[in-house]
Every structure is written in structure tokens, then in C-alpha cells.
Amino acid sequence: MSLAGFGRAELEAMLVGLRPKLHRYVARMAGSAIEGEDIVQEAVVKALAAYDGGALVERPEQWLFRIAHNAAQDHLRRRQRERLRMTEADMTEIEDISANAEVRLAAAASLRSFMQLTLAQRSAVILVDVLGLTLHETCEVTGATLAATKAALHRGRAELKALASAPADVAMPRLEPEEERRLRRYIDLFNARDFDGVRALIAEDVQVDVVNRTRLNGKKEASTYLGNYERLGDWALSLGFVEARPAILIRNPQVGGAPRGFMLIDWRGEEVVQIRDFRHAPYCIAEADVLFVPGEQG
């Protein structure tokens, strides 16, 4: 069928509904919940552009996964060129693992674990064992043959099983003193509800990305964002790490426990020039490796 007949409103609704699943796939492909959101946004833009171009599509959901798959691969190629590192490992030993155990193992595997697989293995395991696609649907998304998909799936499952049995090595990342000082000042002002103080830290040209909601430009629009927090009482901020990156963790003090979202702050000297707020993207915090700085959990 033609996407022109599908309707843009229907396509946008499908993108909203599929966004958590698309993110779950590309985050595991990239090994990062944060980068996964960037890839999803890129895929959404490409899908809407293809709609505007009158793309012919038989199965919209598989088509959207194919766009996300290609966007993830493009992202990884760019990252490979930038970092000059991405190792491809090929497993030669294949083990016979039960299907139920494979699904549980893949769903529980960390993003870091998936990065130990080759791209083909990663795609096959995520699409089949995490997202529940059939082998034929997986071939449609990746463009690989059925034989290649079966082999990648089998080898990827074996590698994940080996990684799951290895001892965990989770060390507290390093937080530079200057970064800690600036973040703690921002957190303390926020928690004290001193939003005039927070506004004083924000640059005139600040960029605010409320992930999965809106983007705001400049201090005036950022004030609306801060005003939304000022009206709510179901949050408290703590210092922590998301994927080893210094972050502000958003928790609900009335509930406690795990954070419900996080913020990433970029600075220019003592001014905040960019805020990425993941409060409204719970699928990101669900995928990310998160650590509280000791004593910060509330």
C-alpha cells in the first residue's frame, strides 16, 4: 500500500506508539540509551520525509523498523570513523540453548553486553529475542538472507550466554571537581525551588530538548520549561551517572527507589547552554545504565 493512502495522522500515531520499541532496538544497536534517542529522532524525520515523498510501503511497521535499522547503522559508521574503534568478533562455537532461556537472557542483557556482538548478531538477537519478530520479519528489516540471520542469531545467543556468566565489573565513574561543583549548584537551586537562581545560570541562547515532547530555544522559552517544574511537586533531583556520563537523576520523593528520568547539562563556562530532559521518555531510563553518586539516593 502507499503511505499516501495511509494518512499522515495515522503514520504519526504509529510512530508515537512504536517509539519505545524502536528505541529499545536502536539503543541496543548503539549500546547507549542516550544515542538511541538521537537515532529514533533521525528515523522519525526520515520516515515523515519518505511519506511526504509518496513512498510505497506494504507493511508500515516493518518499514519503520527498517528505517530505524538503517539509521542505527549510519550512526555506528559515523561513530566508527570518529572514534576509530569498533571491533567485529565472530563466534565459531555454537551452543544449543533453549528458546525461553534465550528470550529471558536477551531481554535482561545490558547495552554494554550487546556491544560485544557483531552488528549482524546484535540485530538478529534484538529483533527476534527482545522484540519478538519472526525470522522472516527480521530478514525484511535487516536485508539479510534467512541463512545468514539464523547463523547470526545462534552465534549472538551463544555470545550473550558467555557474557552473562562473566563476573560483573561496575566501577563508579570519575566526576571532575569542576563538573561536580556546577551540577551540585544547579541541583541545589532546583531542589530549593529557587528558579530565579536557576534562570540566572542559563545562557540567553540556551537550547532545551524535552525529549519526546518539545524543543525550546532561548532563555525566554526555557523559562516556560522551568515554570512547569515549579508547578509540580513529584520530583527531586540527585547527582549521578547515566552510561558513565555525569547526569542529574530525577526521582519521585513520594515513591523513592529508582529514578524516573534524567537530565544532561552542557556548560559554557558557568552558563548552561544546553539541557536535555528525559523525564517524558521513560523508555530511555529503562534502557540506560544508571548510578547514583554515593549518598545521593535520597
Describe this structure in words.
The protein has helices at residues 3-6, 8-30, 33-52, 60-83, 99-108, 111-114, 119-130, 135-142, 146-165, 177-191, 195-201, 218-231, 282-287; strands at 202-210, 214-217, 236-242, 245-251, 261-268, 271-277, 290-292. It is α+β, with helices and mostly antiparallel strands and 298 residues long. The protein folds into two domains: 3-165, PhyR, sigma-like (SL) domain (Butyryl-CoA Dehydrogenase, subunit A, domain 3); 177-292, Nuclear Transport Factor 2, Chain: A. Strands 2-1-6-5-4-3-7 form a seven-stranded mixed sheet. β1 (202-210) and β2 form a beta hairpin.
| Spatial sequence of strands, sheet with the most strands | 2-1-6-5-4-3-7
Radius of gyration: 21 Å
CATH-assigned homologous superfamily of the largest domain: PhyR, sigma-like (SL) domain
The biggest beta sheet reads: 7 strands, mixed
Summarize the structure.
The protein has 298 residues and is of the alpha+beta class. It has helices at residues 3-6, 8-30, 33-52, 60-83, 99-108, 111-114, 119-130, 135-142, 146-165, 177-191, 195-201, 218-231, 282-287, and strands spanning 202-210, 214-217, 236-242, 245-251, 261-268, 271-277, 290-292.
Characteristics:
single chain, 298 residues, alpha+beta, Butyryl-CoA Dehydrogenase, subunit A, domain 3, Nuclear Transport Factor 2, Chain: A, 2 domains, 7-stranded mixed sheet, 56% helix
